[in-house]
Amino acid sequence: MHAVWNWIVLRLSEITLPKPIEFIDVIQILLIAYFVYHLIRWVQNTKAYTLLKGILVIVAFAVLASIFQMQTFLYLLGALGGVALTALVIIFQPELRRVVEQLGEKTPLSTISLPGSSEKQERFSDKTVNEIVRACYEMGAVKTGALIVIERNITLEEYEKTGIEVDGIVTSQLLINIFEHNTPLHDGAVIIRGDRIVSATCYLPLSDNMSLSKDLGTRHRAGVGVSEATDSFTIIVSEETGNVSYAVGGELKKAVTPNELREELHMIQNLPHKQEGDEGKGKLRGRKKKKEGAGES
Q: Where are the transmembrane segments (predicted)?
């Protein structure tokens, strides 16, 4: 206890009073708090959470070694510190890449277009919306599993290359035929760009989100996984229950109705840049509800 008390007194003596707090200091504190909060939220939803607990054990051991002057252990920890940091970057390269991509999506810079780039004013037509909704609920009625990924701002070319090129106009008959049991293209995901199905049997990354229900199968985890890695809108039809769900931004909305699915598709239909705020969403939903009389599946 004497050693612990001496260590605490020594550390407290090293603390110096800061200069008077200024406005820029408050801004820095708020920014640091914002980034630390989102870092903790990210860690909780990935496999990094388990590793973090191991790192905390090592840190606690290092503190004890410092208190009791275990010089050999302190030397080994210092020598391995740089190597451990490099190893962490290598181990968590996919997660770090995902964080940087999400940071780029959520900043004001994400709305800036490079010279010569063209933005579509409409992602897909109302006919495509109706065809997707009709196909999903017809497949759900007979419990045919399906995974449909709709491309938005971030290109899905890396996942498109893992499948078989289709390049066909989106119709309910084509979607149902693709996911029909015992057909060559039924296994994997379909990727839709605009009004066309560009690829089928695509492989998607599985989600590492620990909060997802253990009852969810590979199809649902793949749908959430691609929505975490990109800004895509993914529709999942359960083979076990026939329920239709969708995933966007890493969040899964289960067992939605045809009107709910159609409304969400209309939400992203005319958003060429980033999604609007809640007020904009309300206005857009009001305009789109007038179009919902086009029939349900």
A: 20-37, 49-68, 74-92
